[in-house]
Design goal:
Organism (chains A, B): Microvirgula aerodenitrificans
GO molecular function (chains A, B): isocitrate dehydrogenase (NAD+) activity; magnesium ion binding; NAD binding
Family (chains A, B): Belongs to the isocitrate and isopropylmalate dehydrogenases family.
Shape of chain A: globular
Protein name (chains A, B): Isocitrate/isopropylmalate dehydrogenase family protein
Number of helices of chain A: 11
CATH architecture of the largest domain in chain A: 3-Layer(aba) Sandwich
Oligomer: homodimer
Bound molecules: 3-isopropylmalic acid
CATH topology of the largest domain in chain A: Isopropylmalate Dehydrogenase
Largest interface: A-B, 55 and 55 residues
Strand content of chain A: 15-25%
Keywords (chains A, B): Oxidoreductase
Chain lengths: ~325, ~325
């Protein structure tokens, strides 16, 4: 059956960068069908669900999703839950790949690392309660999820001929983070050639600022992965270039790390590069089309290196100009 | 009654930097008595308690503690709990002050920020359970502790004529981190001149790498404060210079942020500067001796600026040489 992609633009600049990425994909892989679906704050206000059932059904049917960005309410709103977190869990995309490497000569040339973030549990399970004066949240870590993400991280690290660093805080959380560490270690033993080490999350944060070039692949529980991947993105042009892939056994969601940026939405200056790079991750790791992925990566690299850059990168190109240039570069490759 | 300091060297380089700081204090404030007490991994192995009752009693009696660093077992050991975490809770030192600013010309000259970390709850309460395959930890946030740390942060920010940024992840944890945010906001309303804003923890990590100079005072729940303060220390010479003060209503614990560094322990090259700077925080905020605190800060600054630096800062001075130079500079001031 033909491949298809569920396209969720979301809110804000998601509605600019996602259509841009669809144009690029149409050039690269005209065989892939695209089906639009809605999610986000705007959707919630209209239909009362941030991730409507119909969207979830489409995402499941396609298996592959391109997710832009969604706005969230600044204060607690009953019934609202982050649709991307819900989608990650519903599609069981258990590993979130967040590469940090220089693109188009932007960022530190010596940094090439990959953060593999556990994507289904930890404090993200949404189990919280409060009596108004005392609130509690559950941080849940399971052997199953930890081993699973450990296998993904170990396989990718081994594929790079590299080193895997387990991030945890087991000195304070011996049972939960200790289970994460031990499960990843057990999973990684399937790749005996791998160099394995570990690092406390606070130390990892410091080292990622001081010596990001010392890291290769990091694997972390959900929340630490969230924090460290934003931090590390600083070395490679910031969020405008930060790509991610939520990867599961059956499904995958390509998702730029940036948010919906309401302050610049609608002005045509959003940077689509992170979304393009996320699509490249989807092509490589989900559809196993390394050739298209490499062509797309090369096109992004080429366009940025030429100085065709949006204002967040110090350039004066529009989203449209970057998109057209990447489409052209893809066709020429 | 005369002031006294409970001195806990701990393990590893704690046994080098703490005696060094005691010599400096004796020059500055010969009136302050010092009482040694033990804690740490070595203590645990000898007496079965990482924080013996006698140590806790001495700490309580003195009200002021100088804590070096302790080693922790690399794997879970029954009955072992981090003595510094236990001490913070036992003495109810509810705010952990972690300033990041250039010392002796080391680090970014434009950065001068203060992280105020909640110090008694969050995931640090040690409530964990596991059935071997699923482990859970409780993250607890209370209005009481959040307001309390909010008041400290707001007071310090107002004293700097500054801005207070609340760090949280309320988009994922609306009840717990939402309570933290709302409580700090409520507490800060007592300082109406203060500029108040907020930032998601992942975004804060990114901005602290990219634009640390944009921050003034940050207030964060315990774990985020732990991660962000290590991260931010990278801008000011790393852990060798990172000072902290655990501050409560009755008690305070001066504590360098670095660990016990077993790899360099016993070689005489440990950097005592962070411990000196922590002592300065104790003098200023607990004993309210701004004069001695400023003299000590100036002495550290002067010695480092002269190039009398330990190897972690690229110098070749020993702990002894730095200590002697700071003692001399204090006397000359
Ligand atoms: C928007 C938010 C729910 C999300 C997360 O915390 O996972 C984002 O920060 C990310 O990193 O993808
Ligand atoms: C040693 C450890 C328990 C401690 C903490 O996590 O609080 C340390 O990292 C710190 O920042 O003081």
């Amino acid at each position: 059956s033909p491949l298809s992609l569920c396209v969720i633009a979301g809110d804000g600049i998601g509605r600019e960068v996602v259509p841009a990425a669809c144009r690029v994909l149409a050039r690269l892989r005209p065989d892939i069908g695209m089906i639009e679906a809605e999610a986000g704050w705007d959707t919630f206000q209209r239909v009362g669900q941030a991730l409507p059932d119909a969207t979830l059904a489409t995402a499941r049917a396609c298996g592959a999703v391109l997710f832009g960005a969604v706005s969230s309410p600044s204060h607690r709103v009953d019934g609202y839950r982050s649709p991307i977190v819900a989608l990650r869990r519903a599609l069981d995309t258990h590993a979130n790949l967040r590469p940090v490497r220089p693109l188009g000569g932007i960022g530190r040339p010596d940094v090439d690392l990959l953060i593999v973030r556990e994507n289904t549990e930890d404090l993200y399970i949404g189990e919280e309660r409060s009596d108004g004066d005392t609130a509690e949240a559950i941080k849940r870590i399971t052997r199953h999820a930890s081993e699973r993400v450990g296998r993904v991280a170990a396989r990718l690290a081994a594929g790079r001929g590299g080193r895997l660093t387990i991030v945890h805080k087991a000195n304070i959380l011996p049972l939960t983070d200790g289970l994460f560490r031990d499960s990843v270690r057990a999973a990684a033993s399937g790749w005996p050639a791998l160099t394995l080490d570990e690092c406390l999350v606070d130390t990892a944060a410091l080292r990622l600022v001081q010596h990001p070039e010392h890291f290769d692949v990091l694997v972390a529980p959900n929340l630490y992965g969230d924090i460290l991947s934003d931090l590390a993105a600083a070395h490679a042009g910031g969020l405008g270039l930060a790509a991610s892939l939520n990867l599961g056994e059956q499904c995958a969601i390509a998702e730029p790390v940036h948010g919906s940026a309401p302050d610049i939405a609608g002005r045509g200056i959003a940077n689509p590069a992170a979304t393009f790079a996320s699509l490249a991750l989807l092509l490589r790791h989900h559809w196993r089309d390394a050739d298209s992925a490499s062509r797309l990566d090369a096109a992004i690299d080429h366009v940025l290196a030429q100085g065709i850059r949006t204002p967040d990168l110090g350039g004066d190109a529009s989203c449209e100009q970057v998109t057209r240039a990447v489409c052209d570069a893809v066709l020429a490759s």
